[in-house]
Automatic annotation (TrEMBL):
Methyltransferase domain location: 42-133
Coiled-coil region(s): none
Domain of life assignment: Bacteria
Name listed for the protein in its UniProt record: Methyltransferase domain-containing protein
InterPro entries attached to this UniProt entry: DinB/YfiT-like, Methyltransf_25, Methyltransf_Superfamily, MST-like, SAM-dependent_MTases_sf
Amino acid sequence: MSSTDAVTFWDGVYAARSAAGDPRPNVRLAETVTGLPAGEALDLGCGDGGDALWLARQGWRVTAVDISAVAVERLTGLARSHGLQITAERRDLRDSFPQGGFDLICAHYLHTPFDLDRTTVLRTAAHALRPGGRLLVVDHGSTAPWSWDQGREVRYPTPREVAADIDLDPATWTVERADAPRRIASGPGGRTAQVTDHVLLIRRTKETTIRRRDTPPPRTGNNEIETLRGFLDYLRASIAAKVDGAPEPQVRTAAVPSGTNLLGLLNHLTFVERSMFLGDNVTNWQATFQAAPADSVTDVVTRYRETVERADDVLDQCTDPGAPLPRPRSRRPAPSVRWALTHMIEETGRHTGHADILRELIDGTTGR
């Protein structure tokens, strides 16, 4: 079914619900989060907004997303009326995931009759946690009498099955809770019923920060070209190592409003090397900041290192820093070897600094 069908369906569900009074938070959220230090929280499938409002009142800075415009507009109005800072976004999680890192991500009853790769969404959520952050997944373990999915044959996976599907590295993520408690729930019109919740709580361990020893500046020869090439090679190796092994999908996800992402930086520098030393004509530099969707991290890193090797073959021919680069360049003269090396040190160094910050935001890795 299309995204339009899903929006229409969920808009109808929330439009049919009474807007009288503030929605209540989910019981499992309150019992899990009470006592935790407030930070950045993300509410996936915020629905009526009870969880987002409760978190904001506890001091959390909340981003809440839902596919329903009705739900998002209602939550925005409630937050405004209570003076609470909540960023509510209409978002289809099949197409995109909120940017940034979070200390808490909650997904309460993220079930839908429409196509949704929930496992990928939850795996992406786990990777968006900061060290020490928690992912709380609360699923239905039974069907309430007032549920929208009455009459459907539904098998509810256990919390352990959900955790197995997400398939997170136990060295980085710890399952802190996986059980199926029961409670008396209240529905429309004052109806009550016993329901079962499937509760999964995953914590990203604080020990994920990888602090590499800084590599000292290079020892180079004494002449100008050897010195410049030594520092350029130092920066090339640094940014390639910074990208190599970075996790998906964060490695290609924009971490700042400009859209800059770690994999795109290395892809861009590959084109810069090819343009400068191999004579390639690049017509759209902005497009080079995004790697192709089919490219893996290994593909991009390998392509960069192979391009550097070809560029070095050109530089090996250079002995006079004032001479032009020995390669064709359309429409304008080739720059001097000195200018080209100085520019490449500046360009690579600038983006290596960007990469340092982006990689630390992704998984805590620091060092050069």
